[in-house]
Amino acid sequence: MKVGKHARLVWIGLTLAGVAGCSPIGDIESPRPISWWEGDALTNLRPSEDPDGARFELALGDLEVGSTARGTIRVRNTGAGALEIASKALPEAVVVQVPGPIEAFGRAEVAVSATPLEQGAFRYVFDLKTNDPIFANVRFRVVGRAVTSSDLDDPDVENPDDPEDPGTVDPEDPTDPGTDDPDEPGDDPADPGDDDPSDPGDDPADPDDEEPTEPACREHSDIFVAERKTDVLWVIDNSGVVPYYGLLSPNWSDFVSAAGGVDFHVGVTTTGLFSLSPGTGCRGGADGGENGRLFPVDGSTPRIISSAMPAADQAAAWFANADVGECHFDEQPYEAARRALSPPLVDHADDPSTQTPNDGNLGFLRPDADLAIVFITDERDQSVNWGFTVPDYVSFFQSLKPGLPEKVTLHVIAGERGGPTPQCWADQADRLLDGVAATGGTSHSLCTPYPDWPDMLQGLSRGVFDRVGATFRLSAEPGDANGDSVVDGGDVTVRLDGSQLAPTNALGDTVWSLDAATNALLFEPSYVPASGVQVEILYVPDCLVAAP
């Protein structure tokens, strides 16, 4: 979903005081889904099949005439700009209070209350208008029944406006499915009106059990618009011991070989945090002290290489930017990356601490994109004097994608653990390799023979780009709907633009799978949906699956 500087809206869920149903599972942190959970209070609708064109139905149940039911819709903005919400087309009986602008990554609540004034079934429709370009208008339908206090005391009172009310018992009508047959000797499960006085308790399998039971299982739907977008920060050692610049610069096509269909930004900074004397061999305008600023700080070539650029321009910019020069000695890749992605650089076009104009990193890091950091060095990481451990650095990088740690990966081209080794002369890369292991990234040997560097960079490309947009967080935990005692692909239906996609292909290879650890659906690299494809995931939440 490409929204530019627009806000993005995620409908997290609705809770209603006094209404039974599933307890909220938790806030959905994904930047893509329009998600909700369903139960007695809130149900997802398909507008094309609904006469009101509603997206959600809020079922209030029985309310006493003149009383008010109140609820809150919790909203999270995961877009790049402020999210604005306004109500419109409000019925007289409905009051909606909307919050002010919700900043990026912010949360807020929309307060909803309904006060039916006349007895009988009611149906109110209202809209919430937003500046989200995809979900600019979200329609809600509020339904229920307004009754008198005496009606509330009688569970068998008939709703005259609801012909499908199963609670009505008409003893004079033999066709009434609620009629209790006095000639029936026992408890017949086929008779939904059979009231067996010998039934001692709450039996979910007994349809005439009068004790409260779980709400009926209903299909739950999470809808996403696929988006493949990532930002890649290269942190290149500028100590100059190894001529790997000559191996990186000409091989741009190998690095982006797996980036087809991905909207990417690629930027370069160096491991140098402070400048050395001019003329010592480093180019780019900072004399080796980029201090997290994207290279080249003087802007002599484009500092952000974008997939929107012509391929030839991408390659030319990479050829220049990967050659950071050979001048420094103090390799601090973790700290350089942290500074590159922190204020004031990440949110300023100009670094206020320097005299160089327009040397900030504004525009590189996008809140709705994945983040990959690639370190290349022949030395151990020396970012040890800033009070941060490796887990601290990893936590910082993951905090840039709140609640979605799988969107951040670290990758290295460096020495081996415990090095130097007989196989690789480069110094040990233990700290960097720890970060790779913590984020599921890839590691590659700096000592790869020169002829094999194109293949190595293609492997790095797969690690960086293959799973961009492959993960879809679910808004509730799927239950064992098919009763086979395993929650897997058999309990979930996946549709891409309306067409069902099986969990395996004709050869039995996995297409998509469920990851219980993250409560997400994962696509295999060859099957990641292209940007703009609507992904619908249908399942029965665990809290709605009745016990056997």
What is the CATH topology classification name of the largest domain?
Answer: Rossmann fold
Radius of gyration: 29 Å
Q: Determine the fraction of residues in helical runs and give it as a percent range.
A: 10-25%
Shape descriptor reads: elongated
The CATH architecture of the largest domain can be named as: 3-Layer(aba) Sandwich
Q: Gap between N and C termini, in Å?
A: 41 Å
CATH class value of the largest domain: Alpha Beta
Give the total of beta strands.
Answer: 22
| Spatial order of strands in the largest sheet | 13-12-11-14-15-16
Number of domains: 3
Structural class assignment: alpha+beta
Order of helices and strands: EEEEEEEEEHEEHHEEHHEHEHEHEEEEEE
| Count of runs of 4 or more consecutive helical residues | 8
Superfamily at the CATH H level of the largest domain? von Willebrand factor, type A domain
Please provide a brief summary of the model.
The chain is of the alpha+beta class. Helix content is 12%, strand content 24%.
Overview of the molecule:
The protein is of the alpha+beta class. It folds into three domains: 141 residues, Immunoglobulins (Immunoglobulin-like, Sandwich); 111 residues, no CATH class; 237 residues, Rossmann fold (3-Layer(aba) Sandwich), CATH 3.40.50.410. It is built from eight helices and 22 strands. A six-stranded mixed β-sheet has the order 13-12-11-14-15-16, with helices on both faces. Helix 6 crosses helix 7. The N terminus is likely disordered.
